[in-house]
Amino acid sequence: MTALTNHHMKKTAILCMLLAAPFWAAFAQNYDESKVPHYTLPDVLKTASGKTIRSEEKWEKLRRPEVLRLFEDHIYGQMPVGYDSIRYALTEDDRPEMDGKAVLKQIGVTVFRNGNSVQINVVLFVPTQAKKPVPVFLLINNRGKDLTDPTRAKKSEFWPAEMVVDSGFAIAAFHVSDLAPDNKDTYMTGVLQKLYPEQLKKDNGMKAIGAWAWGASRVMDYFGTDKDIDSKKVIVVGHSRGGKTSLWAAAQDRRFAACVTNCSGNTGAALARRQFGERISRINTTFPHWFNNNYKKYNDKENALPVDQHMLIALIAPRPVYATNASKDLWADPKGTFLAVKAAEPVYALYGVKPELPKEMPGIDMPVIGPHFGYHNHEGEHNMTAYDWDKFIRFAKQF
């Protein structure tokens, strides 16, 4: 190799590095607390016109609808409510399982609109010892379908049906792929193309996460018809992207009695303005099919957002919310999650709920479980485990 060629290759390599620098800078994630920028959260109790909200009545009438619309327009998309009809078909009904401790139901929830339909397949275990309708945990499953295996040939801590049944609760699940495949090229082939194609043409139209949340509400419709289920005590649960969805489902549909959001991170329960771990630009680039088109305007511009995630949690008030993190999952910003839940407390106070969380973030494996708020940061990786479910059950038993 000649010196001239070597020199030319070095110049080319340097040029490529310079051209790539802006791209890599956009994806350089901060895990250093000292580098979190100064930020000011939007005031959840101040309307767009500058009016300060001081009562439950004014929150319900003025500010809550305003905040909900901001999330629809700028992040999650509209939530369509109309459809022509809905049908429930039990493909498995009251089959004894778990050595007689539970019965299995499998339900096809089919929704029709404009001559098209989608079917949501629900797996449900109900404790046999129950003498009255029971509360139920509903998982929005974004992982493998085998994790919610109705035959119980495969058991998983991610959905520990036996543990939940033994505690006296029913447990249910549906898979996100029934509504929108979790794929940027095919996400539109379910609910969006079949039932709500108009949403695909709108910059504030719903995409995958909106479709999954919509599906959770259709399962909620079914629970209202099942005599074994107390439909006033349905706890919606999600992990990671499913945890983003459980928050949005609970914010939109007030029939959900409580929300569990496990390791949901950016555009879930963590504050965007901290710019810690995953950021908006990264999530919109890697998963462009999750949120509406308008959200792309806030790539690397978190402070321009008219909302932050404490306001999403506030939309669930006064219903209980449990948020979690894992110690090795800095991507999901554990501190930002705790701070978001804490910053929602002023809205709960309008309903007479006193602060339940400590001023400082609790230590690892030191859960705080109150009747309205729960939080823990468990030792481990980005996952949902028996440790987490044990705390969710304790939380649910308080209300």
TrEMBL record:
One of its GO terms (molecular function) is carboxylic ester hydrolase activity. Keywords: Hydrolase, Serine esterase, Signal. Gene3D superfamilies: alpha/beta hydrolase. Residues 1-28 form the signal peptide. Residues 109-352 form the 4-O-methyl-glucuronoyl methylesterase-like domain. This is Putative acetyl xylan esterase. It comes from Dyadobacter fermentans (strain ATCC 700827 / DSM 18053 / CIP 107007 / KCTC 52180 / NS114). The lineage of its organism: Bacteria, Pseudomonadati, Bacteroidota, Cytophagia, Cytophagales.
